[in-house]
User: Which sequence fits this backbone?
């Protein structure tokens, strides 16, 4: 008990110095948390991927389409339960700065394939009935103030023309990793229009999402699908949804790697700052430590006292930083919602923040504790005289 | 009977490449219940001798015996336990812990004992009573005068009921009045409780409080006065 009292009193003996160090640790842990959340957000697509979904695309590139007729052949592969074609529509709502992902999909099978998109049953039925209808995510609807029945004009970029869609359903995510900023509408509506305006581009999809009976079947089914279309005009490449999503992440691997390094560098810097503060504190108190030792206290007691002080300061900063990560992440998510749809602080980020906080406390105390334990009593006492 | 016997002690310090001898073959007996003053010019080795007697420094050669215990043969841990049990320290600059109250400062040495909290409180109050500071229990060192701080330090030195009180220039940082009070207190403790006091001082007036005076010069004992009449 006494040592705890001593530790707390000592930790805040120089209030401004202690508060500045606490502030530094807070900022470092907060910055670490945010940067780690950015990294997590980058992988959110992969994290949300289902093990029972595959993605089949043109083997040359995602830019090249696949004939919609492949759907039935894919469905015939053993182990396949559902197949839905999808195309990136890339429509613009009023202004280009209002970016959000919008897809034309075969909704009848796409919705059962993605049970994490949760719908009101009546809205879902209305969506499936209306070819000009669309579904929007909860956050997207909130962003533009859309509600069921509203008309949304989209200006086509990949598919030219003006496209009028009616909001028939608003979905919400079954878990925090689900992107609630998407717009989905009937691929049939897109295809019918294309047949009239650009027939050569009709009857194509960008990719197929394929449901399989069990995750164990993924390699076998992928191979079977790709073999079916081998030596055709549009050969396919089938991979798990996770691998497909990671393919996008891989394009920015270097940036993510840099973000990750910077997040740890921030912690390393604050570790050095905290260690310097503790070293300074210990240097100033060598005489006090000598008094403790003269009275009969061992170097273990001094080590514990210094470690305690260091941990108190690091934990004050670390816990504040971890706590502030949540409002900061919410603010960051609100500001960056167009580019980062899912920005949630992962539980493991908090654990790493806590672990790094403890590491800062331990590392900062190590050298001063060692030094205080080694100093001769007579030498320490001479420091004041 | 000797409480402390110092036999042919040598001690030197290293200053870079140079070896500076501080004590050269010093031998001295300190009797139980003595009040001994160590005097001498700066660098004569008096503080070093005090540190050796108090077990906070180690000699290069020679022996220091406390009753039958040879301090020069004790490990650092054993020496720490010996100090906690037998030595009370009084420093020139009081060396109280600034974040602890007077009560807590005096309680410090008792934390190394097995005394229960209530027992510790009783001892602390008694020690602060001896130095007439029971009305300053919850004052921090910064809220006390120099003289009061030194009295708290004396209470801290006393509280564990040690055999020996070592005092390094205990009046060096005090005004005349406070210095007088402290010296009176040390004399009283020596006379009334039989504590052995070993005091280093520059001040001949302070040395008058001692019952025996030892001069050191250039690391050698010059003169030993058995009983003053200085």
Assistant:
């Amino acid at each position: 008990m006494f040592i705890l009292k001593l530790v707390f009193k000592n930790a805040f003996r120089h209030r401004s110095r202690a508060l500045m160090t606490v502030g530094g640790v807070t900022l470092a842990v907060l910055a670490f948390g945010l940067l780690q959340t950015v990294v997590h957000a980058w992988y959110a697509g992969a994290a949300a991927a289902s093990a029972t979904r595959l993605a089949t695309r043109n083997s040359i590139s995602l830019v090249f389409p696949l004939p919609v007729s492949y759907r039935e052949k894919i469905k015939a592969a053993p182990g396949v339960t559902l197949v839905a074609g999808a195309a990136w529509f890339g429509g613009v709502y009023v202004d280009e700065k209002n970016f959000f992902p919008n897809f034309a999909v075969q909704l009848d099978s796409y919705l059962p394939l993605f049970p994490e998109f949760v719908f009101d049953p009546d809205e879902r039925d209305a969506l499936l009935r209306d070819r000009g209808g669309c579904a929007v995510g909860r956050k997207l609807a909130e962003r533009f103030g859309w509600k069921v029945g509203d008309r949304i004009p989209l200006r086509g970029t990949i598919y030219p023309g003006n496209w009028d869609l009616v909001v028939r359903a608003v979905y919400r995510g079954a878990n925090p990793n689900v992107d609630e900023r998407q717009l989905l509408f009937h691929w049939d509506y897109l295809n019918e229009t294309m047949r009239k305006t650009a027939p050569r581009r009709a009857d194509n999809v960008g990719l197929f999402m394929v449901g399989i009976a069990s995750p164990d079947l993924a390699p076998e089914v992928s191979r079977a699908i790709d073999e079916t279309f081998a030596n055709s005009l549009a050969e396919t490449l089938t991979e798990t949804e996770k691998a497909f999503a990671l393919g996008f992440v891989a394009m920015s691997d270097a940036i993510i790697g840099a973000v990750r390094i910077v997040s740890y560098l921030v912690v390393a810097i604050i570790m050095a700052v905290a260690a310097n503060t503790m070293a300074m504190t210990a240097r100033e108190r060598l005489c006090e430590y000598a008094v403790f030792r003269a009275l009969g206290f061992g170097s273990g007691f001094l080590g514990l006292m210094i470690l305690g002080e260091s941990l108190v300061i690091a934990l004050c900063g670390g816990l504040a930083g971890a706590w502030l990560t949540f409002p900061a992440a919410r603010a960051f998510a609100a500001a960056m919602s167009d580019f980062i749809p899912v920005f949630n602080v992962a539980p493991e980020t908090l654990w790493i923040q806590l672990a790094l906080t403890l590491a800062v406390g331990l590392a900062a105390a190590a050298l001063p504790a060692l030094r205080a334990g080694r100093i001769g009593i007579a030498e320490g006492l001479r420091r004041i005289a | 009977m000797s409480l402390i016997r110092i036999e042919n002690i040598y001690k030197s310090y290293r200053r870079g490449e140079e070896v500076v001898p501080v004590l050269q073959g010093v031998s001295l007996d300190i009797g139980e219940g003595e009040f001994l003053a160590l005097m001498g010019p700066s660098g004569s080795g008096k503080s070093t001798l005090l540190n050796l007697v108090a077990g906070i420094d180690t000699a290069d050669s020679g022996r220091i015996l406390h009753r039958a215990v040879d301090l020069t043969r004790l490990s650092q841990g054993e020496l720490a336990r010996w100090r906690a049990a037998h030595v009370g320290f009084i420093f020139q600059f009081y060396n109280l812990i600034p974040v602890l109250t007077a009560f807590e400062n005096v309680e410090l040495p008792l934390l190394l004992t097995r005394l229960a909290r209530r027992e510790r409180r009783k001892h602390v109050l008694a020690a602060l009573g001896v130095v007439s500071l029971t009305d300053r229990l919850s004052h921090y060192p910064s809220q006390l005068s120099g003289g009061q701080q030194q009295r708290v330090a004396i209470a801290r030195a006393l509280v564990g009921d040690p055999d020996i009180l070592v005092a390094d220039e205990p009046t060096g940082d005090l005004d005349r009045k406070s210095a007088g009070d402290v010296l009176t207190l040390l004399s009283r403790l020596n006379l009334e409780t039989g504590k052995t006091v070993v005091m280093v001082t520059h001040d001949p007036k302070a040395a008058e409080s001692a019952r025996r005076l030892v001069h050191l010069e250039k690391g050698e004992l010059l003169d030993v006065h058995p009983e003053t009449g200085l």
About this structure: The domain at 32-58+83-225 of chain B is CATH 3.40.50.300 (Rossmann fold). The beta strands of chain B are 2-15, 18-31, 35-39, 61-66, 69-70, 87-90, 164-168, 196-200, 212-217, 220-225.
